[in-house]
């Protein structure tokens, strides 16, 4: 193995020299800022010391075609030394090479941009080796030779799909590399992460945030980390990152808009749909002065009809019972004088395809209706994910999280926001009607997760 040390002014300069001296298979073992020159350590010039190495056997191998880039040097370094791999990954992301296009912000999933002469795969870079600036890991593959084959196939009457297939394969390769480095960067090793950032990671995992969502937050923290950070500062910054990630998942205002005529509520059994309906109905009636009506299709659970009927009597609002989806239009017609009608559905086993199909036939998806999926924070996120998947055919407008008072882990809200396109609207905190329900906001959810 050849090892070489460089003293440079910037990481792009180092990458150019490494590529010229050691080739494309070289990896960066270490990089750190140093001062050169000056008198007695004063007035020195700020530079960067970079140590790179290459396996001579790898350098002697014939060069691969650009359409099939190799991950072997990086994977071998990752297996031998995770810390070195982390630095190599950071250095790769420092800035684009001379023939790449740098981006300050890139989406987490690979984006494939194809044109007549090249295929570019852009991947978000977790960290630069100098100063923590954000850049994009961009790899451009010249496919002039590969393009000849599709053109010759066109002449023979075959479709020109080879370029697209090659770009898709390259995107998959980059995605696998990204996942591998995320695991290395966020593995449970306190020697790899600074203590303040490790504190944030421990908190996220304690809150049952998924490994993928936690990795994204930790990666952004590493990019913004400053020397001398205390745990409280890291936690505060993590909270701000969570708020940013939730901006698209929480639509403001999150209340039930004035143009909405029907609000459907569905979800698994025991999550508190009926009580949640009573809370929202009371608030709409008492605070917004809207005429409210109730429809229940929950004729399976014992006393379910009586429960919602009791709330209807307390609020003095009309109440209808339906036994099948075909009866919904008639019930809506009888409640046509109401400004807003709340529809309660039966809570049954979400693994039952027949029940899910019944919900699909019951709910209405148009501009005058909202469909609320009700999920319990007291349930495991693995079960919650299964519920969401099984209700995939039901048009979900927004999500309500219940039973926040029965758990200390609130990471499921961040997980749902990260993995779905659902909007989070309300959080219930008890059984008192109408008080124990609050509007979900990004800051509220971030405070719940980070413990403030």
UniProtKB/TrEMBL annotation:
Listed SMART domains: SRP54
Protein known as: Flagellar biosynthesis protein FlhF
GO molecular function per UniProt: GTP binding; GTPase activity; signal recognition particle binding
Family: Belongs to the GTP-binding SRP family.
Domain SRP54-type proteins GTP-binding: 260-451
Membrane-spanning intervals of the chain: none
Region Disordered: start-end pairs: 142-167
Subcellular location: Cell membrane
Membrane topology: Peripheral membrane protein
Keywords: Bacterial flagellum biogenesis, Bacterial flagellum protein export, Cell membrane, Cell projection, Cilium, Flagellum, GTP-binding, Membrane, Nucleotide-binding, Protein transport, Transport
Function: Necessary for flagellar biosynthesis. May be involved in translocation of the flagellum.
Biased composition (Low complexity): 155-166
Cross-referenced InterPro entries: FlhF, FlhF__GTPase_dom, P-loop_NTPase, SRP54_GTPase_dom
Gene Ontology terms: cellular component: plasma membrane
One example of a Gene Ontology biological process annotation: protein transport
């Amino acid at each position: 193995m050849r090892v070489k040390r460089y003293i440079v002014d910037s990481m792009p300069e180092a990458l150019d020299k490494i590529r010229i001296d050691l080739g494309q298979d070289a990896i960066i073992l270490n990089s750190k800022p140093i001062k050169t020159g000056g008198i007695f350590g004063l007035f020195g010039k700020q530079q960067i010391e970079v140590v790179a190495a290459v396996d001579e056997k790898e350098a002697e191998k014939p060069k691969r075609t650009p359409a099939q880039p190799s991950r072997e040097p990086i994977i071998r370094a990752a297996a031998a030394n995770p810390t070195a791999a982390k630095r190599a990954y950071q250095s790769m992301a420092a800035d684009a090479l001379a023939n790449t296009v740098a981006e300050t912000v890139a989406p987490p999933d690979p984006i494939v941009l194809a044109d007549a002469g090249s295929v570019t795969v852009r991947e978000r870079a977790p960290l630069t080796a100098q100063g923590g600036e954000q850049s994009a890991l961009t790899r451009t593959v010249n496919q002039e030779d590969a393009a000849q084959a599709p053109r010759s196939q066109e002449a023979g009457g075959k479709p020109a799909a080879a370029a697209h297939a090659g770009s898709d394969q390259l995107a998959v390769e980059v995605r696998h590399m990204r996942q591998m480095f995320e695991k290395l960067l966020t593995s449970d090793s306190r020697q790899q992460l600074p203590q303040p950032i490790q504190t944030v990671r421990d908190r996220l995992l304690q809150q049952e945030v998924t490994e993928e969502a936690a990795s994204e937050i930790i990666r952004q923290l590493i990019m913004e980390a400053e020397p001398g950070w205390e745990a409280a500062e890291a936690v505060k910054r993590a909270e701000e990152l969570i708020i940013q990630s939730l901006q698209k998942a929480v639509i403001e205002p999150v209340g039930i808009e004035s143009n909405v005529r029907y609000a459907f509520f569905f979800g698994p059994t025991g999550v508190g749909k009926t009580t949640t309906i009573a809370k929202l109905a009371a608030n709409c009636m008492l605070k917004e002065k809207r005429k409210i009506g109730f429809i229940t299709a929950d004729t399976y659970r014992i006393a379910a009809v009586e429960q919602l009927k009791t709330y209807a009597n307390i609020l003095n609002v009309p109440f209808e019972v339906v036994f099948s989806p075909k009866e919904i239009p008639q019930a809506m017609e009888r409640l046509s004088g109401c400004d807003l009608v709340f529809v309660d559905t039966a809570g049954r086993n979400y693994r039952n395809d027949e029940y899910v199909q019944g919900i699909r036939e019951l709910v209405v998806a148009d501009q005058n209706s909202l469909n609320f999926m009700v999920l319990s924070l007291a349930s495991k996120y693995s079960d919650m994910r299964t519920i969401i998947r099984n209700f995939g055919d039901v048009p979900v407008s927004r999500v309500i999280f219940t039973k926040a008072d029965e758990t200390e882990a609130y990471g499921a809200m961040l997980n749902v926001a990260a993995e779905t396109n659902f909007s989070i609207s309300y959080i219930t905190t008890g059984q008192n009607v109408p008080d124990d329900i609050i509007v979900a906001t990004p800051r509220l959810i971030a405070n719940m997760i980070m413990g403030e």
